[in-house]
Design a protein that fits this description.
alpha+beta; 2 helices; 9 strands
Amino acid sequence: MNTKILIIVGIILVVAVIRFSVNKKKEVPQGEVVQKQVQTTLSPQMNSEGSVEVEVTPIEISDTSDPWRFKIVLNTHSVELDQDLTKVTLLVDNKRNQYKPLSWDGAAPGGHHREGVLTFRSISPRPPSIELVVKDVGEIKERKFTWDLKQ
């Protein structure tokens, strides 16, 4: 009878070790994927100066993405949003190099609400920080949105 108990306990231990090993192997890749997603996710930023609210959200900024894309949302109740965003926006790296946008895919100039995606060529090597500068929207000469990319 003691032999049967020892065999059963042994089988239970072997099964437990196998399950632990299998679960441990599954956790590592998932953890790496989550960590990489965190590293490439940047928070939206908002500037509400003057009569126009500008929100900028980086949507594709990583070592592997080309081009880089930013979602831009402009809202107001008092002025026309008639700027050509490809002409009033710059991307600036930590060395103060300036990059012009490649394109705007979104609402045409005019109205009180505009939304779209501003596209830039990716910067390589990836700088430790970037700044998106929006000029002359509303009565504000310059709005700056800065992100730390060193994560």
